[in-house]
Write a structure and sequence with these properties.
One of its GO terms (cellular component) is cytosol. The chain is of the alpha/beta class and about 280 residues long. The protein contains eight helices and eleven strands. Helix 4 runs parallel beside helix 5 and helix 4 packs parallel to helix 8.
């Protein structure tokens, strides 16, 4: 194949495989964002959801013959002319562990809204330096399932909306807006000022989330694995609550905690079953 995809070589940790040269333009510090850099999308649900999103602008699309045939059978418009490649070519670009299902795309990043434009109803999630792209992707998937209005996260100390994160989100990246902020405490203060009830989730919280009087608009704030909420984040929240569980293990993976908190919040606010 003479015309090979130029840059998207990523391992499961969103970096180039060990021992391989870094592609041109690959940043050494993953916390530094390049707003103009391409977003890497792969896998059936991830790519087809992006194809269905009119806001997503594609740069390039690589498909295997089987993937192209499946898209045609399901009448899914590729929107741009794809390049048909062998599966091994996509393997070479993404690494051997990536489950790409014969689909790889480069696209422009989506533009996120500002804090002051968020709807003043429903639920917003706020992520305090959660850095694992698998966890953030899983949180996005839960957020889409519970019709979360947006996810607020920091421009630094958070994974970019590309590669592993996009694959883990399984299409939810196209459904839940991401709001990138420079200072999380300032963003929480703005949410407070706009009438949001900001509830931090922490194992040392004063009350069980199920017992807290919740109201809309609600912002649930989740901290990083291990470290939890930072002190200033805790102090800026209206209240800090915990998730009480009957078993011997009292803490959950942050993505599981997000799903449970969203279920409690949506149930208490009467949002379940709405469409």
């Amino acid at each position: 194949m003479s015309d090979r995809p130029p840059n998207p070589r990523f391992s499961r940790r969103d970096g180039p495989p060990r021992g391989k040269p870094r592609p041109a333009g690959f940043r050494r510090d993953p916390r530094e964002r390049d707003g103009d850099g391409p977003v890497i999308l792969y896998g059936w649900h991830t790519v087809t959801a992006a194809l269905a999103n009119p806001q997503r602008k594609f740069r390039k699309l690589w498909l295997t013959e089987n993937a192209a045939r499946r898209l045609a059978e399901e009448n899914i418009d590729t929107r741009i002319a794809p390049e048909i490649v062998r599966p091994s070519e996509i393997d070479r670009q993404l690494g051997p562990d990536a489950v790409h299902q014969g689909m790889l795309a480069e696209a422009d990043p989506l533009q996120g809204p500002r804090i002051d434009t968020l709807p003043q109803h429903g639920i917003v999630l706020v992520l305090d330096q959660i850095t694992d792209p698998h966890n953030v992707g899983a949180i996005l998937r839960s957020a889409a399932a519970f019709a979360v209005q947006a996810i607020v996260t920091t421009a630094r100390h958070s994974p970019e909306a590309t590669g592993v994160l996009a694959k883990s989100a399984s299409g939810a990246l196209e459904l839940v807006p991401l709001v990138l902020v420079q200072n999380l405490a300032r963003a929480l203060t703005e949410l407070n000022d706009r009438g949001f009830l900001t509830v931090g989730l922490d194992s040392e919280g004063d009350d069980d989330l199920a017992a807290v009087e919740l109201r809309q608009p609600l912002a649930l704030v989740l901290g990083a694995e291990g470290k939890g909420l930072r002190q200033l984040t805790r102090q800026t929240c209206n209240t800090v609550a915990r998730l009480d569980m009957p078993g011997e293990i009292k803490s959950l993976n942050v993505s599981n905690a997000a799903a449970l908190a969203l279920y409690i919040g949506a149930s208490r606010l009467g949002l379940m079953g709405r469409r």
